[in-house]
Structure prediction request, 381 residues.
Amino acid sequence: MESVQSKLPQVGTTIFTVMSALAHEHGAINLSQGFPDFKPDSRLMELVYRKMVEGNNQYPPMRGSTALLNAIAKKAKRCYGLDVDPLTEVTVTAGACEAIYTAITTVVHPGDEVIILEPAYDLYRPAIELAQGKVIAHRLQGPKFEKDWDEIAKLVNEKTRMIIINTPHNPIGKIFTAADLTALEALVVRTGIYVLSDEVYEHITFGARHESVLRYPALWQRSFACYSFGKTYHATGWRIGYCIAPAALTKEFRKVHQYTVFTVFRPGQLAIAEYMEDPHTYESLPAFFESKQRILEDGLKHSRLQPLASQGSYFQLYDYSEISDALDTDFARELTIKHGVAAIPLSVFYQDPPEGERLIRLCFGKKEETLLLATDRLQRI
Prediction:
């Protein structure tokens, strides 16, 4: 049989799938893939069941159920002070990944350039390449992964179509500051450049507020902001997210969305809409996850793994250079097989990884007993 000419010849199975499978094979504790090992709130699960029993089992509107669109608009106003038209500026998607893919596909044409900041979540590059765009990567600098906005500005030219940002950042756990968003706004205002803002961990920040593009009027007018109810409500398998964008962008976004997934699980949409009427369901998340982050740090305080500060998300980077000089991919594999804890090597988030970096990503979005067992194993290394 004739072989298929691949559109993504450099892409294999994602590292998250690989490491989760390796963890399962060897009975390791999975701190690699970013999903909780605890259940969503029982009230939310009961609401989903109730919505199904009430007969909400057929297609919802392509843009999303009106109840959820209204709830999202209300939250955007409460959290970021932005008046959003729920019917023309919000679209419910099959998770944040579909929102991100759709936003890229909506505006990136063959030959367009898209600036990403590396290390970068592994979806961005393949989505850009499938749209026949060109990835232009700015590498975050130093042990604190600093952004250099002057250097980023030098990457901008007449071919630049989009800049992708991610805050709180996966995998490094850093957040964008107000100064960052102001610099970005100055870079794109009165240009043909769009911003894709991946904000799936918007409610998981430690000690500082989340700086969304929705807070910055000139920036918002050129942005697709993407979010995840799966991350917010501990139900990643439901695949429910959304995109907020100005009406003109949303109109084009929906043209792609309707032929990608068309619509999303209706009972889940209606359940989430009712559940999020109580703001505590998302406003309590910083304290909830910060306590888990402390369990991880405290448990590894006397280990040879050295933490890098996590300002948000449910990830934290650890430097293993006191333990091994092995490449991070080899170390992560050894960690899983020999020591029973699965992690993600940081190098997979680069196209060309920097030499000498010895960092792994651990997920602390887990039950307390999971974290305690994992840290007990890790501090013995």
